Amino acid sequence: MAGTETDRPTPKVAPVQLGPITVPVPVMLSPMAGVTNWPFRLLCRQYGPDGLYVGEMVTARALVARNPKAFRLCRFAPQEKVRSLQLYGVDPQIMEQATRMVVDAGWADHIDMNFGCPVPKVTRHGGGSALPWKTDLFAELVHRVVAVCSPAGIPVTAKIRVGIDHQHETFLEAAHIAQEEGCAAVTLHARTTAEYYGGHADWDRIAQLVQAVDIPVFGNGDIWTAEDALAMFAQTGCAGVAIGRGCQGRPWLFADIAAALAGSPERQEPTLGQVGAIMARHARLLAEFYDGDERMAVHDMRKHVAWYLKGFAVGGQVRRDFMACESLEELDRCIADLDQDMPYPRAVAGKPRGRVRYAKKVRLPYGWLDSRTTTHQERETLFGNDPMDASY
């Protein structure tokens, strides 16, 4: 299952301290909606270093409304010794209530705040990567969450983007505010909202932020291989790297990064049969996640199957057969029919995965860019119409 890569200088990487939590190897699984639930986190963790594996976004309003899906997303596997949960919200009061629920129930050891989502249905209501433009609202959200978490010894971090677009950049100011309000670290996805997931991440912005703040900076964007992770450390001086789309369908990327940081040229190159075994395990973990509902598990697996099979010459019919599965038994039959000895497609290893398109247009609330602070009317509109409501 392992191959080798050419030797290259290994950057000096030190453990990162987040409040009382020591992250021995500063490699983070970046939270991804619909992806980083505990089954996928567990797979990545089993391959990877002793890093930080963050759960997918939980919306504060849904949590306060005690939505069952939100509660499910707050679950962690027993093997997860640092339980990292990401919260999203626009209303400071709702975010404070949701944080209080998490803290009082003892659900998490670390809370990350989402200010990086570029999805139009979020930004059109002032959420995600649009929110740091309003400095008063950004500061209040961070302040309230930190105030709840600090007495419990729970560190808070923030995920941000460069800005709305290059005429409306926010990352430097947002990181300074996060630092002043008590965040233990920030993660910068080195794209703007307008760039969405297209083009190339501008790592120079990560280097710029490293020089601008005293708290640790995790760099995020375009880490497709272990060599990319080494390059980001070397180019930016970041304290840690956050892995997003690069690990979709490749949880073993974390093993590659661990090897690279240890100075080893060994890389994972699983055959199709070995990938199939990982898919089968992933599906069974998802069945546990969905409380035994196999149909939900195999439906959730569909996007993962597309990523796992990326680059393998399996044909359209095989892919359609996987998409038609309704049970673990049907999924197992599809896996058994694969060419077990087909070698790993190295040609796609370093290519982008997942969403790569640009946003057609950044969607923002009316008049959002007119001022860096919120008006009373804007707050009434925003807080009465949270983009990610309690119904999920």
Automatic annotation (TrEMBL):
GO molecular function, one term: tRNA dihydrouridine synthase activity
Catalytic activity: a 5,6-dihydrouridine in tRNA + NADP(+) = a uridine in tRNA + NADPH + H(+); a 5,6-dihydrouridine in tRNA + NAD(+) = a uridine in tRNA + NADH + H(+)
UniProt xrefs under PROSITE patterns: UPF0034
Entry keyword annotation includes Cell inner membrane: no
Alphabetical list of SUPFAM superfamilies matching this protein: FMN-linked oxidoreductases
Annotated EC: 1.3.1.-
Residue numbers annotated as active site: C117 (proton donor)
Keywords: Flavoprotein, FMN, NADP, Nucleotide-binding, Oxidoreductase, RNA-binding, tRNA processing, tRNA-binding
InterPro entries listed in its UniProt record: Aldolase_TIM (IPR013785), DUS-like_FMN-bd (IPR035587), DUS_fam (IPR001269), DusB-like (IPR004652), tRNA-dHydroUridine_Synthase_C (IPR024036), tRNA_hU_synthase_CS (IPR018517)
The protein's required cofactors: FMN
UniProt KW Oxidoreductase keyword: yes
Domain (DUS-like FMN-binding) ranges: 28-331
Residues reported in the UniProt entry to bind FMN: P31, M32, A33, Q86, K159, H189, G244, R245
Family per record: Belongs to the dus family.
Function: Catalyzes the synthesis of 5,6-dihydrouridine (D), a modified base found in the D-loop of most tRNAs, via the reduction of the C5-C6 double bond in target uridines.
PANTHER family: TRNA-DIHYDROURIDINE(47) SYNTHASE [NAD(P)(+)]-LIKE (PTHR45846:SF1)
Record protein name field: tRNA-dihydrouridine synthase
Lineage, opening ranks: Bacteria, Bacillati, Actinomycetota, Actinomycetes, Bifidobacteriales
Gene for this chain: dusB
